[in-house]
Amino acid sequence: MGMTLGEKILCRASNNQKVTAGQIVTANVDLCMSNDGTSHITINMFENQIKHKVIHNPDNTIFIADHFMPSDSVETANIHKIMRDFTNKYQIKFHEGDGVCHQIMIESYVQPGTLVAGADSHTCSYGALGAFGIGVGSTDFLYAMVTGTTWLMVPESIKIKLKGNLKKGVFARDLMLSIIGEIGANGANYKIMEFSGEAVDNFSMNDRIVLCNLAIEAGAKTGLMEPNQVVEDYLKNNRTDYREGVYLKADEDGVYCKELSYNLDEIVPVIARPHCIDDVVPVSECEGIKFHQGFIGSCSNGRIEELRVAASILKGKKVAKDVRLIITPASNKVYLQALKEGLINILSEAGAMIMNPNCSVCWGSCQGVIGENEVLLSTGTRNFKGRCGPASSKVYLSSAATVAASAIRGEICDPREVL
């Protein structure tokens, strides 16, 4: 009996011990990542509860300030100071103001075939590179940082076969929201969502990240895709210290608990309505709904591809009078590329507010918080009640194209009407 892609990676991480779903393994962690959402909790435990204060591998431990960037209060300023002091003391890599943690990790650190423990639920994004990214809590992160290992139960895998091509005005975001809408927010609980099929070969790196990033919103332990030429080219173009990763593939006789199939030709622009990410309907069912603020950004949809799409829609036009549009590049690298291409000028001239690279409105903390009874149309990752403002506010989730097109209209509309 063969192994799935996820089992192959965990086998490698467990000293090449063959693993099967349901088995509990102790695995070697290749990278540890924590952000300013919880790093101070980990640091406090390390300083006050760990007797032998040793970081297992400082070179492979990365702390990133992105959730409160820049700091919005004395409290968050102190959290950043704690992180600075700690990383200096133990010679740990620290990024402050460089962008969203997952974008930085994908641009600079994660390698195919590796196991990454991140103190953030969207660590599953790294499956786009063929890496097994798992979100962990502060205690589990501390254990991985100190010992270089973690233990987990090997998840079952769901194979998701994709064929066809997305039509104009339809994006990977629409595809993944459609999948979540069908299987539900609990449809892949503690499972691996392994994306495969002929369509995957045509995906850009951005498409791959979008699908794996949102796997957690279906309850998955992680999302995975076999690394291919797209991944290799991305790494060669983005890493000054390029190293060839471990390009693992699932065995043909790997065992899956479920198999799903989707034809991309049938996917249409969709929207997730408040307050559940699996309440997904075609955008056409929400047309005409007024909203107060639009947001394009986050670890899911803040890359250069989204900025290009938004600029193509907004060029020569203006954001509606009663709408605020906030655009936040996912990293400094994305920001600088957008500047080079003239996208920032186009977006600013249209009336959008361009933020520094960070989690921004998606996190609903330091930028773009909405008010009582206000409505947000967002490319963020979640639309829970109170996610980006008071409990009376509402968050709709869509693609960057839908946000940009709707920002011109002042109400939700199908982006295909504008493109």
UniProtKB/TrEMBL annotation:
Cofactors demanded by this protein: [4Fe-4S] cluster
Sequence intervals crossing the membrane: none
Aconitase/3-isopropylmalate dehydratase large subunit alpha/beta/alpha domain sequence ranges: 17-285, 286-410
Catalytic activity: (2R,3S)-3-isopropylmalate = (2S)-2-isopropylmalate
Group of enzyme by EC: lyase
GO BP terms in the entry: L-leucine biosynthetic process
Pathway noted in the entry: Amino-acid biosynthesis; L-leucine biosynthesis; L-leucine from 3-methyl-2-oxobutanoate: step 2/4
EC number: 4.2.1.33
Record: residues binding [4Fe-4S] cluster: C299, C359, C362
Cofactor detail note: Binds 1 [4Fe-4S] cluster per subunit.
Domain of life of the organism encoding this protein: Bacteria
Keywords tagged on the record: 4Fe-4S, Amino-acid biosynthesis, Branched-chain amino acid biosynthesis, Iron, Iron-sulfur, Leucine biosynthesis, Lyase, Metal-binding
Gene3D superfamilies named in the record: Aconitase, domain 3 (3.30.499.10)
Residues in the signal sequence: none
NCBIfam families, A to Z: hacA_fam, IPMI_arch, PRK00402.1
Matching PANTHER family: HOMOACONITASE, MITOCHONDRIAL, HOMOACONITASE, MITOCHONDRIAL-RELATED
Family listed: Belongs to the aconitase/IPM isomerase family. LeuC type 2 subfamily.
Assembly and oligomerization: Heterodimer of LeuC and LeuD.
Family matches, as HAMAP family: LeuC_type2 (MF_01027)
Function field: Catalyzes the isomerization between 2-isopropylmalate and 3-isopropylmalate, via the formation of 2-isopropylmaleate.
Protein name stated in the entry: 3-isopropylmalate dehydratase large subunit
Organism of provenance: Anaeromicropila populeti
Gene expressing this chain: leuC
